[in-house]
Amino acid sequence: MFIDSHAHIDGPEFDDDREQVIERAQAAGITTILNVGTGDPHSHAFERAVAVANEYEFVLTALGTHPHDARLYDTSAEEKTKRLLTENVRMVAWGEIGLDFHYDNSPREVQQEVFARQLVAAQELNLPVIIHTREAEPETIRILKHDYSTAQRRGVFHCFSGSLKLAKEAIDLGFYISLSGIVTFKKAEELREVAKYVPLDRILVETDCPFLAPIPFRGKRNEPAYVVEVASCVSQLRNMDLETFGRLTSENFSACFNLEA
């Protein structure tokens, strides 16, 4: 069994064949998909993510304002996010949130303020967080230490593509590390070294679909079924059989998001 710990199947990329995508995921042995709702928090983007979780029993959902949209986050957005997360039992995390200094779609100072604000809000709901960080490693760790140090729940650094130093710092702070199709890419040697380092009880796999399809599907639309390719790559790096690795990462997912029976 496998879990796609981060996907965006509510997006328009899947409007024409979402049912078939779900069927292919199940046929591939995917038992759970965590669908992450992003976009303008004042639009219907979050409600769209909630609707997908309500339609498919093995889909869970997280909601949060991505750093790209940090400039749109305000009190109204925060109240709406809290309401949706508390009203729906299939909501398991606040995210994805964080910093993205590669595109700078929102001003960096705004990103940092909104990241800290959402960390505080997540603590108020006792929810784990899903972290997005790109080209902002020191700032991400600094804010987590300042605004999340007393949190009862931690969370995951999703689609990890950072340095080994960042991985070590994230793990020391109690976070899980989730690897995506990037780990299969030819030039991702440094990331494969991270994949070998992460403790086995802190590792997750994901697609981040529709983006970043793993080899041999690179260049195509990504989908949850392809998380098996990510798991296969990492299991080989860790000298584990695929079935055992799938079971391990599924157990880690349950622990991260407090889903134990």
Describe the structure.
The longest helix has 18 residues, at 108-125. Helix 4 (108-125) links the parallel strand 4 and strand 5. The model has no long low-confidence stretch (mean pLDDT 96). Helix 4 runs parallel beside helix 5. The chain is built from nine helices and eight strands. The chain has one domain (2-256): Alpha-Beta Barrel (TIM Barrel). It is globular, with a radius of gyration of 17 Å. An eight-stranded parallel beta sheet has the order 1-2-3-4-5-6-7-8. The protein is α/β, with parallel strands linked by helices and 261 residues long. Helices cover 41% and strands 17% of the residues.
Question: Outline of this structure?
Answer:
This protein has a single domain, classed as TIM Barrel, CATH 3.20.20.140.
Q: Report the radius of gyration as a whole number of Å.
A: 17 Å
Please state the overall shape, judged from the principal axes of the Cα atoms. Answer: globular
CATH topology: TIM Barrel
Number of strands: 8
Largest sheet: 8 strands, parallel
Annotated CATH homologous superfamily = Metal-dependent hydrolases
- How many domain regions? 1
Strand order of the largest sheet: 1-2-3-4-5-6-7-8
CATH architecture, by name, is Alpha-Beta Barrel
CATH top level label: Alpha Beta
Distance between the termini: 17 Å
Give the SSE string: EHEHEHEHEHEHEHEHH
Summed up, the helix count is 9
Mean pLDDT: 96
| Amount of helix | 40-55%
Structural class of the helix and strand makeup?
Answer: alpha/beta
Unreliable spans are none
How much of the sequence lies in strands comes to: 15-25%
